[in-house]
């Protein structure tokens, strides 16, 4: 059978949009770094072409022969790299804010965590299909015993990503994906709620043990409390109102950019908040930049394309009889969806900003190439699904 062509086309369209945004949203950034006006657009084009080549090549491979070795190579290879990165010299590994997240390769920086996410999902799908099943008669304690090996692996990955690399956002996305995969793999809803409580507690622990995360929460609450506390009685509102050390200027400018775009936007290259007001507008705040220049309808078009892409991935999962492929496709669809939602909620002030990029839309090679491996492997697997 042939791979799903519609999925490949949808990813290609999103990558094409990201190249346009990498040019139109970066005039201030190019001046700031003293590079050519096409610098980011050219690099994003390179990343985009590499991603499409990866997706196409993977889609042509035999899933019976190649899916498992590629999945395990991504899992173990990127895990070993993440463990080794704190001990590697700065000539090989880039250090930002005391965290070593990127490996320098031929003038580019790649983040192993983006490839680890795909490998981790494959490992879960492969193992869940062999070890997990229906929960009848097992009881909550039995489900916890069955889950313990996965909990140990996840806690190890969480320690590496959240503590050594100081990237709690990726842990949130991975944790949410693991949680929902358990349901699709046959766990009970009671077990789902129990694990949800444990993960929520762990996230709270990570936040209160790091000063920069506390400041980020305070910055977000400074914006949210203005509207939320007005709905509560004064006695309760006064207790919840907290002084803020850092003004939430990023979220404020993001909301202003979205508001300035209106329904139809200011027009291509006519946005103003990208001119030094909103930093990293082509990466973490790309949706805000898109909203300003293309308006509500521009964002709506991108959301429709993204949802259509997710629908095709879930359709592949639904049409296959192979449990591991079913769970892997579900997992890739979930992690792409959660990444989009975490970013969208962050730039609109609904939740604190997590530093998660928008799949196939934000500028950056690692996230795009990692997502390309995920979609490419799903397309490879789609050969075993009845897509008619």
List keywords for this structure.
mainly alpha; 14 helices; 388 residues
3D structure, described in words:
This protein has 388 residues and is mainly alpha-helical. The protein is 69% helix and 4% strand. It contains 14 helices and three strands. It has helices spanning 5-24, 27-33, 39-60, 63-84, 112-131, 139-164, 168-184, 189-208, 211-228, 234-240, 249-261, 286-319, 323-347, 365-381; strands at residues 93-96, 99-105, 108-110. It has a three-stranded antiparallel β-sheet, with no helix packed on it. Strand 1 and strand 2 form a beta hairpin. It is globular, with a radius of gyration of 21 Å. The model has no long low-confidence stretch (mean pLDDT 83).
Helical proportion?
Answer: 55-70%
Q: SSE order in H/E notation?
A: HHHHEEEHHHHHHHHHH
Strand order of the largest sheet: 1-2-3
Proportion of beta-strand residues: under 5%
What sort of overall outline do the alpha carbons produce when their principal axes are compared?
globular
> Which structural category do the helix and sheet elements fall into?
mainly alpha
Number of helices: 14
Rg estimate, integer Å: 21 Å
| N-C termini distance | 10 Å
Given as residue ranges, the uncertain stretches (5+ residues, pLDDT < 50) are none
Overall pLDDT level: 83
**Biggest β-sheet, characterized?**
3 strands, antiparallel
Structure summary:
By secondary structure, the chain is mainly alpha-helical.
